[in-house]
Amino acid sequence: MSEFTSAPDVHRVNVKNVTRVTLFTLLGFTDNFDLQVYLFLLFLTIYVFTLVGNLGLVLLVMVDSRLHNPMYYFLSVLSFLDACYSSVVTPKMLVNFLVENKDISFIGCVTQMLLFVTFGTTECFLLAAMAYDRYVAIYNPLTYSVSMSPRVYVPLITASYIGGILHATIHTVAMFSLSFCASNKIQHVFCDIPPLLAISCSDTHINQLLLFYCVGSIEIITILIVHISYGFILLTILKINSVEGRRKVFSTCGSHLTGVSIYHGTILFMYVRPNSSYAFDHDMIVSIFYTIVIPMLNPIIYSLRNKDVKEAMKKLFERSWCKNRVRI
Question: What SS3 state is found at 215?
Fold first, then answer.
């Protein structure tokens, strides 16, 4: 752990008689306006797809009775999380692409970080709960509705949110207990933990340890749950004689495992490593990927390959088309 104590000397600046910052400046990707316009259009398109895909899935689960089972309740909660997760970061980033003043208030930065970490951590726990749900459904499908009743899945979803809020509160309180007096310029598009630590003039050693151990522990626990669940699922699949049955299970679980791997891979890369290895230009791209791109991909990964979801979408479109025909 010696790497965590080798933070730059700027973290240990004497903060007496120094005015603390009341706002931060998000430097973003580039100062080139033409490139910023291009990035604005790109990320606006991604954001629209994210909201339409995720909130559309939430609506679909609400209105179609065939999707009223725990698997789709989990998916709808995940979609809601992804819409919120992206909305914490993207609107402010889009505005900053088109304006010269890229400032964010101290309270705004606190709020953004609190919500960002809350939704991100909640998603980690929720993905683990979804893996357990798939294990219960595949291991003994006849008792699935009983084993995964509202008395089971509602506490799992609630516990995911509570875990996310507690984890976010720890990091937010620890972060904004530090002094920010050397600089207020954040080399990022939002108030993420590593770039904020980089501009603090306090000793950030405790914060680095919190980041490493808290995120590391959450990742170990949730990934372990996913691996154990899918280990049992694999054993169950091998016992299935039907080729069609195996294909269906592999299709459902493969998409979930793909989403889990991409999400956890980027989280581990960003937060569970020594402070000395941070390179903010590269890290900004990675963080954009898991906060903006992955929420757009999740409806495709989890839902559009799903036969029930496709049929529900078809039914909804047909119903809407028929209503429009009647009005005409």
Answer: helix
Beta strand extents in the chain (DSSP E only)? 23-26, 103-105, 185-186
Give residue 275's pLDDT band: very low, low, confident or very high (50, 70, 90): low
pLDDT 10s digits, 219-251: 999 999 999 998 888 888 877 776 666 676 676
Burial 140-168 (b: 16+ CB within 10 A, else e): eeeebeebbeeeebeebbeebbebbbebb
Maximum C-alpha span of the chain: 75
123 in Cβ contact with 85 (< 8 Å): yes
| pLDDT computed for residue 24 by the predictor | 92
Q: Which of 221, 168, 196 is nearest to 278 (CA)?
A: 196
The one-letter code for the residue type at 261 is S
Tell me the sheet residues that pair with 185: 25
Q: Band of the pLDDT at 7, cuts 50, 70, 90?
A: very low
Q: Are 157 and 102 in contact (CB under 8 A)?
A: no
- What three-state secondary structure class fits 194? helix
d(CA 116, CA 110) in angstroms, rounded, equals 10
Contact 153, 73 (CB under 8 A): yes
The pLDDT tens digits of the residues spanning 86-117 come to: 999 999 999 999 998 999 999 999 999 999 99
Residue from 314, 322, 276, 288 nearest 64 by CA:
314
> Please, are residues 36 and 98 in contact by the beta-carbon 8 Å criterion?
yes
Single-letter amino acid, residue 34: D
Smallest CA-to-CA distance from 41 within 93, 85, 84, 81 is with: 93
Say if residues 126 and 264 touch (Cβ distance below 8 Å): no
